[in-house]
Amino acid sequence: MCLAIPALIKSIEGTTARAEIGGVERTISLALTPEARVGDYVLIHTGFAIGVLDEEEAQETLRLLEELAEFYADEVEQPAGSSPGA
Amino acid sequence: MKYVDEFRDPRLARKLLANIRARSTQSVRFMEFCGGHTHAIFRHGLRQMLPPTVELRSGPGCPVCVTANSGLDRAIALAELPDVILVTFGDMLKVPGSHGSLQTAKAEGADVRIVYSALDALQIAREHPERAVIFLGIGFETTAPTVAATILQAEAGGLDNFYVLSLHKLTPPATCAILDAGEVRLSGVIGPGHVTVVIGSQAWEFLPRDYSIPCAVAGFEPLDILRAVSALVEMVKDDRPAVVNAYSRSVRPEGNRVALGIMQRVFEVGEADWRGLGRVPASGLVLRPEYARFDAALAFPVDPGPTREHKGCRCGDVLRGTVEPPGCLLFRSVCTPAHPIGPCMVSAEGACAAWYRYGGANV
């Protein structure tokens, strides 16, 4: 129910937009995200964009994750086991 | 896919897991409120990879699962009325109510249709002006604004045959209800990412303030969840509970003000019946008097009769986090996805469905 996936806005007409989700285009509503612009990534939930993704924050998170991963690198053992299904 | 693949990097995930293992020295139990998190945690095998000191417990964050039989029975009774089209999200179809499901009602002749979006229900209403089209409004703060926006669109378009049965629910009051009950000891909460896109990370400040436990709002990829777990472990270790926004590419502290404004324009807060939690004050959304003409509960008063629960089904306990699915005698033996007894086995977000699909009894 609360599933939402990132989609790239390709064009906007009034309060609706065409957005690309994993290579497929569909019409979505921008009624909840009037600030969205062509080229933005938005989170789509049941046909509505519910939020605009922030590229800077995404990069900052990845940078933080790298930092966090390295921070205790000397203290921790290399874990056994499979990859996390990614 | 952008914003997905980079948050599934196995190299980083392994390092984060190693850090969590090294840093986690005391036993903790974190509740993932959201059923989407439960399924992501199982799908990516995160439970097995976390150290034994870190326990993850599923919460009530599955809208289909927490819909009480009283609401579902009402929806079925509405679907059985003549000249009504009952429109619903697909997950609700197979959920057993007191005397049947929407699916059995459909098999017996009721016009029940599945849609992807509330807007699809509006289109059905336009195509069938001679019939009443009732949208079954379930979902948390993620979904409620989309239904509110659809009602505003129906109003603007002058549609007089579109109705909503609002069974929408609010997530913070449910979290409080679980903590207040004190049945399950929690060290922290993994905050629901997409709910929090709408309500904002500030909405969880009551957890450290009133309950002295930390909250980390998480996205749905493995790195998002591990980052949240890592933050919770650190906050417990330092005894400094706070709210950490571990999903900042999507979540703002203040949330989505437009969505909140539309939700609050159409709905007001009221009590709601939850499976597992019972009647919780100020935990649901009802249509405001100005929009009462869209309220299916008012327009079509039906008496679905007394509710009945399946003996032995422990969905209520699973939703409160007091028991895990294998603790239910029906799990796997009688209750399966093909023949579900309770909603937690039906829904794509249900904890029982996750355990059945990915978990086995040894997770």
Question: What would you note in describing this structure?
Answer:
- The complex is a heterodimer of chains A (86) and B (363).
- With 86 residues, chain A is α+β, with helices and mostly antiparallel strands.
- Chain A has one domain (5-71): SH3 type barrels, CATH 2.30.30.
- Chain A is 20% helix and 36% strand.
- Chain A has a five-stranded antiparallel beta sheet, with no helix packed on it.
- Chain B is an alpha/beta fold and 363 residues long.
- In chain B, 40% of the residues lie in helices and 18% in strands.
- Chain B is built from 17 helices and eleven strands.
- Chain B has helices at 10-23, 35-43, 46-49, 63-66, 69-79, 102-107, 118-127, 144-156, 171-181, 193-199, 206-211, 222-238, 257-266, 296-299, 315-320, 343-346, 351-359, and strands spanning 28-34, 54-61, 84-89, 111-115, 132-137, 162-166, 188-192, 215-218, 243-245, 267-274, 278-287.
- In chain B, strand 10 (267-274) and strand 11 (278-287) form a beta hairpin.
- The longest helix of chain B has 17 residues, at 222-238.
- Chain B is globular, with a radius of gyration of 21 Å.
- At the A-B interface, strand 1, strand 4, strand 5 and helix 1 of A face helix 1, helix 2, helix 3, helix 7 and helix 8 of B.
Entry keywords:
A: 86 residues, alpha+beta, SH3 type barrels, five-stranded antiparallel sheet, 1 helix, 5 strands, 36% strand, disordered C terminus, B: 363 residues, alpha/beta, Rossmann fold, four-stranded parallel sheet
Summary, kept brief:
The complex is a heterodimer of chains A (86) and B (363). Chain A is α+β, with helices and mostly antiparallel strands and 86 residues long.
**Proportion of residues in helical segments of chain B:** 25-40%
The CATH architecture term of the largest domain in chain B is 3-Layer(aba) Sandwich
C-alpha end-to-end distance of chain B:
29 Å
Task: Determine the number of helices of chain A (DSSP H or I, runs of at least 4 residues).
Answer: 1
CATH topology of the largest domain in chain B: Rossmann fold
Shape of chain A: elongated
Rg calculated over all Cα atoms of chain A: 18 Å
Q: Name the beta content range of chain B.
A: 15-25%
Order of helices and strands of chain B: HEHHEHHEHEHEHEHEHHEHEHEEHHHH
CATH domain class of the largest domain in chain B: Alpha Beta
Number of domains of chain B: 3
Mean pLDDT of chain B: 95
CATH architecture label name of chain A: Roll
Termini separation of chain A comes to: 22 Å
How many beta-strand segments of chain A? 5
Class by SSE composition of chain B: alpha/beta
Largest interface: A-B, 50 and 72 residues
- Low-confidence runs of at least 5 consecutive residues of chain A: 76-86
Tell how many strands the DSSP assignment of chain B holds: 11
